[in-house]
Amino acid sequence: MATIVFYKMAHTTTRQSLVAHLKRVAGLRQTRSPFSSSRCPSVTPLPGAGLRFLSHGTAGRPAAGRTGRGALALCGAAAVTVAAAVAGFLANASHFQRAEMATRVSPAAAEEKEEDGDILERCRGFMSPPVTDISVLQGRKEEMRTRMEMLIMETQADFCRALQEVDGGVFKVDRWERKEGGGGISCVMQDGKVFEKAGVNVSVVFGNLTEEAARQMRSRGKVLKGKDGKLPFCAMGVSSVIHPKNPHIPTVHFNYRYFEIEEEDGTKQWWFGGGTDLTPIYVNKEDAFHFHNTLKEACDKHHSQYYPDFKKWCDRYFYIRHRGETRGIGGIFFDDLDTPSQEAAFQFVRSCARTVVPCYLPIVYKHLNDSFTDEEKDWQQVRRGRYVEFNLVYDRGVKFGLATPGSRIESILMSLPLTARWEYMHEPAKGTLEAEMLEVLQNPKEWV
């Protein structure tokens, strides 16, 4: 009870400043200067007193002994009914709802108006001029290739500015060209105050598929009919992986992409793919609920089965088979989406892309000044090692990138952390929070 009272007091006295701070994150888009580093001000994070809602203990201590951390989540989990658990969460963690509202990049009513806006004016808000020449984009404004490129550029800009606001650092913007066709924009921030490594990449590439890349697609059931052995393609997407310094701030990954292939008779195959998933180092049920519920709300606007289906797909995809565990606590993941129509699929992808700030930034602010021990940092390093294993052994995007001539290796491997650790026969002691995390990874749970 004492923990809950403390939380309510902290919540009451700080939520106004938190919401105001997060509104500034969302508002940067209206005040930035075009293609200038001055559009990304350095802002000192909020003082710790207003954000440390829950305390943390030391690694290796029995889970039951850390009564401060996770106490509210345990109270909710102990409720007899789902309704009671949800009610408890809403009563004691409404800062997530308020922060989600404050960090929503663009209300639904403004989305259509924004897409109808002038191409040049929208491009002024990006981290860099788009990969495709602006005059070309203006000339084919209604084509899906243009609409998707504008979406991924906007997603990159919105997420980068939100991360700069909380960290105080500035992203290095690195434009690159692919001699075979296209190029990309890699935005990377390393050794910041909050983030050890943060990368948000956009790529727009085209040309002819290699036989190896075509084989990968045929293995997924694609029927591809090339002309004279060639398969013209266009692929574009935005991809991000964030590795925080603090082990109580989770790693997050998202990727949203569009693929188009022209067959020998001139017809085009197209599909969308992507998803967003969370990789915490320690279990936090409030964070998991907020993250998954934000994604569920976006999915539910389009189809009631999207969230449950894509949540299961995410758990299956981000699975480290040789370890027998998932990479994290999941989220949503989908690929080869070409129904019910191109427009409907695009609208769904746009809704998902617009969740990347509100599903993650409130969690970052919540744990911004949590203390941690050397043992907890070591556990983070071990879990990062698992992250590396998945990306290099199983990740489909990495495999496709490495099989595509002219791909930029630095951008493909941007997802890897600066530091990681591999310990021989590492196994956390029973009853610890580290063991609790491992149990969740070995047995995926329903968080919403």
TrEMBL record:
Catalytic activity, reaction form: coproporphyrinogen III + O2 + 2 H(+) = protoporphyrinogen IX + 2 CO2 + 2 H2O
Pathway(s) this gene product operates in, as recorded in its UniProt entry: Porphyrin-containing compound metabolism; protoporphyrin-IX biosynthesis; protoporphyrinogen-IX from coproporphyrinogen-III (O2 route): step 1/1
What Gene Ontology terms describe what this protein does at the molecular function level? coproporphyrinogen oxidase activity
Q: Which InterPro entries match?
A: Coprogen_oxidase_aer, Coprogen_oxidase_aer_sf, Coprogen_oxidase_CS
Q: What Enzyme Commission number does this protein have?
A: 1.3.3.3
In the record, biological process GO terms are: protoporphyrinogen IX biosynthetic process
The yes or no answer to whether the keyword Isomerase is present is no
One GO cellular component term of this record is:
cytoplasm
Sorted keywords for this record are: Heme biosynthesis, Membrane, Oxidoreductase, Porphyrin biosynthesis, Transmembrane, Transmembrane helix
Class of the enzyme per the UniProt entry, highest EC level = oxidoreductase
- PROSITE patterns, from UniProt? COPROGEN_OXIDASE
Which family, according to the similarity comment?
Belongs to the aerobic coproporphyrinogen-III oxidase family.
- Please give the subunit comment from the record: Homodimer.
- Protein name as catalogued: Oxygen-dependent coproporphyrinogen-III oxidase, mitochondrial
Which species expresses this protein natively? Echeneis naucrates (Live sharksucker)
